[in-house]
Amino acid sequence: MSRPALHLAVELDGDGAHPTAWRRAAHAPDQLLTPRRVAEVAAVAENAGFTLITLDDGVLPPGASPNPVGRIGAVERAAFVAASTSSIGIAPVVPITYAEPFHVSSQLASLDHVSAGRAGWVVTEEERPEAARAWGRPLVDGADARARESRDGLEVARALWDSWEDDAVVRSVATSRYLDRERLHYIDFTGETYAVKGPAIVPRPPQGQVVVLGRPDRVPAAQLDVGLVGGPDLASVTAAAAAAGTARVFAEVEVALDTPDATAADRVADLERHGPWPDRGRLRHIGSAGQLVELLGELSRHVDGVRLHPLVLDEDLAVLSRLVLPALSERRLTARPLPGTSLRTTLGLARPANRFAAVSLPEDAR
Predict the structure, then answer these.
(1) pLDDT tens for each residue of 246-260
(2) What's the whole-model pTM score?
(3) Which of 263, 266, 307, 328 could pair with 334 as two cysteines, CB 3.0-4.6 Å apart?
């Protein structure tokens, strides 16, 4: 019996995982935020056979001068990419520490409709105090308070996605009815800092619930579909994966690969002259494509997927596409997502039942 495929995700924000990755990019700095750049990088990832792309985001600039500090919102980029792709999953990073969960749920439900069921959501936190000032909100101070906001925001978003039953939209020309009001529901959420009544303003997502990814040490595992786990070495990653408690587990791996022009170590050293590569608590591979294939093969015994963070997108994504993913496919460790398939189906996740459907009786039973 064959084991399930290893799912590969890749982070596509900016020019790469290193703050000075732009210095080795194949484009001029002013091209970073153009629609063409966003579409081209997403197309490379889809053609290579990645399961999922993620797009980092936050209310504060992603860096400091002299590095590029501009960024287009992740949800907006995800919606743009959805229109130019057909099979790859698309998961924007949306911190919910200060954002209104009602609006976040509406944005992500809309993304799922636009992408025909390929949307995900990477839940993170806004940790810097400056984020509160940017939002014009009181500071959410401390890890426990930020965890509360993530927990409550996720609960609200999931309830709002269920507030429309699947068949709530009628579109009956004969009766001039667009929807069945009996199949819309108030969620009546009351948390420590806010209350939400609902229902949503967007019909239920095609997947029922958008696929939610996050760190199990920051968000309750029961609220996540995919746990993102890290660690400085293989042993710590496998231990975190075993303890995650989520339906699927992805390991976080930063990669710098040998290219035809330079070794991975030389490329890292070149960028380190301009600034350090921050330690974000992730497993890091600096070496050849073959060595990465071996590492991913070992990880496939412990996790369901891996999210890769390339050092420099223009250099490492090409090596991943040309050498790494084909080698994994030859070993039957990965499988390419199929057009027309939802992200849930690709990941082997069931489509959730609507929490309100059981309380709605058919007309002849009332």
Answers:
(1) 999 999 999 999 999
(2) 0.94
(3) 328
